[in-house]
Amino acid sequence: MFRLCVQGQKGLESLKGFHSVLGNEGIIVSIGKDANVVNDFSSEIQTYCESNEIKTFDKSMGLEAISYTVAVGWQRIINDVPMDSIIVMHDSILPRYRGFNPLVSALLNGDEQVGVTAIIAEETYDTGPIVAQEIADVSYPIKISNAIELVSGLYKSLSVKVANAIADGKLTTSVQDESKATYSLWRDNEDYFIDFSLSAEQIQRHVNSVGAPYMGAQAYLNDEHVFIDEVEVVEDVHIENRAIGKVIFLKDQIATIVCGKGLIKILSMRDSQGQAIRVNKFRSRFK
Questions:
Q1: Cα–Cα distance measured from residue 163 to residue 43, given in angstroms and rounded to the nearest whole number
Q2: Residue 235 near residue 226, CB atoms below 8 Å
Q3: What is the dihedral of CA 253, 258, 263, 264, to 10 degrees?
């Protein structure tokens, strides 16, 4: 019996993958929730379980029949089973991007590939032996919602691969190469704000990487807190007195902003109440 601790779209797709191999009698599901995203897919996961007569876990149930616990998008500590029976699925090509928000970090860096890795849990996060990986190419610009869709498909195929390996008694692991290890730090509300000293391409990746289902890229337009949802990279011009964040062109209330390198056009923007807004005066500054 597998216990699946799942959350989010990738959790739903992983559930589908394990279910396709093990059936509804081979799995039991714990459903996670996250109030910080637009949709945590908890209702979709619940519906899938009910439609397929898959049991959901509660603390009154015994753990004796559970051979493996699989954590996908799970944000809580699992300490009720032996650690070497926990398989963690992490959305990076480990050993790169151990830690937090690895997909966002990979997109911010403009990586050409993204992936998902299944590992055996250890006391130190994301350092355990690798069970299997799935990798996909990515091209830019790409919205985080589309990247999540891509990676969710990888989660499903990886889940099928892991479930089959365990069912066939052929589960093998490989030690991570510590010389290639990197870490991705936790992110908070301050990390949503745009750094206009970056290049236009980096700013576009930032806007695209923290949009829905996350809160969205943020800045101050003069003194007003704004959310920026869509931007376009514009070819740079020679500016004698370059001042980042200033409006250089304004047409039909659509502003083009000076960046550390290049220019960025703000195509879609909203205020803190979610109402669409435009730039009304030429002498405006973003910061």
A1: 24
A2: no
A3: -50
* 167-180 average pLDDT score: 95
248 backbone dihedrals φ, ψ, rounded to 5°: -105, -30
Question: Is there a single domain that holds both residue 127 and residue 258?
Answer: no
Q: What is the pLDDT of residue 75?
A: 86
Mean pLDDT of 117-128: 96
Indicate the SS3 state at residue 227: strand
Q: How many domains does the chain have?
A: 2
Report the alpha-carbon distance of residue 96 to residue 180 in Å, rounded: 7
Structural domain for 224, as ranges: 191-271
Question: What pLDDT band is residue 27 in, cutting at 50, 70 and 90?
Answer: very high
Query: Beta strand 183-184 with 217-221: parallel, antiparallel or unpaired?
Result: unpaired
Give pLDDT, residue 66: 87
Element (H, E) at 110: none
> Is residue 285 included in any domain, yes or no?
no
**Stretch 168-194: mean pLDDT, rounded?**
96
Statement to judge: residues 146 and 197 lie in one domain: no
